[in-house]
Amino acid sequence: MTIVVTGGAGYIGSHMVLALLDAGEDVTVIDNLSTGFRWAVPDGVRFIHGDIGDEALLKRALSTGDCEAIIHFAGSIVVPDSVADPLGYYLNNTVKTRGLIAAAVAAGVPHFIFSSTAAVYGIQDEMPVFETARLDPISPYGTSKLMSELMLRDTAAAHDITYAALRYFNVAGADPQGRSGQSSPRATHLIKVAAQAALGDRPYLEIFGRDYPTPDGTCIRDYIHVTDLIAAHMAALNYLRAGGRSDVFNCGYGKGYSVLEVISAVERATNHPLVVRDGPPRPGDAPMLVAGAKKVRERLGWAPEHEDLDEIVASALHWENRLKTKLAVS
Ligand code: UDP
What we know:
The protein has about 325 residues and is α/β, with parallel strands linked by helices. It has helices at about 10-20, 55-60, 80-85, 85-105, 140-160, 190-200, 225-240, 260-270, 295-300, 310-330, and strands at about 1-5, 25-30, 45-50, 65-70, 110-115, 160-170, 170, 205-210, 220, 225, 245-250, 255-260, 275-280, 290. β5, α5 and β6 (about 160-170) form a beta-alpha-beta unit. Uridine-5'-diphosphate binds near residues 79, 188 and 205.
């Protein structure tokens, strides 16, 4: 049996592939390499270069009938881009996911794990936010993922497939063995951008708004180490395999850090002040998002091991350095 990983050449997907290989699983990657890298897919993995919107390709990929689960990472992930291009986001994240779910049902794939997002919650009065909170995304990105969650819910009720939708908070850091990390030069996520600024690959870090209703005025997020996030996926896979019922799980630690606190962590790690500039608030940003993370621990038995922000930041910096060397020699 194989596990199909869509977006397996991308940041989070490539870490999933490594973890599956480490666990002795057979892995097939489908990736269109729009933001991923062929080199991020290790030898020994079946690689299908193509788009999940290609129905014929999906049919071929699943035709052998030996796919035990699809872990679906492929998609677009930049909140402000989704505000500028909602239809592009609904196509990539919703329409194509619908096609993938349909292909899974047609091929009799028993399990589906979906990369969802904390952006489905929008702005909430209560923090941390639990899975039972009102779902009210404030960006097309969040809505595009929520619609996919709803399709999965309804499909699982009608067909013989179980799913886990994992609502990621802010994923950062890199494989502790240095095998993968966030590699896109155009990345927009805070810790990645801060690492690039710290290493001189960007002239400065822009702080998107200082007037939010938070203690220091900058937005608060729950940063989760990619290794812990992937451990939650492994736990979800084993849960579904053991007959666990379909469900939704927050993936975060339950502790939030402001943009200024992240900047301080970077400065501690490099022992150097970071060049920062104030910018306007970014469209679609919620002031605060912190995970209520009981369910993932209790139901999936997830036990994170890399919760320290300093470790996450150090790991991101380490990868950024490594990436520079990698790109310089290739
Ligand atoms: N942010 C920032 N400067 C940057 C990138 C991000 O101030 O260059 C802020 C952003 O406004 C948000 C937080 O950092 O409050 C996390 O943003 P990110 O893009 O990493 O993730 P998101 O929460 O949007 O998924």
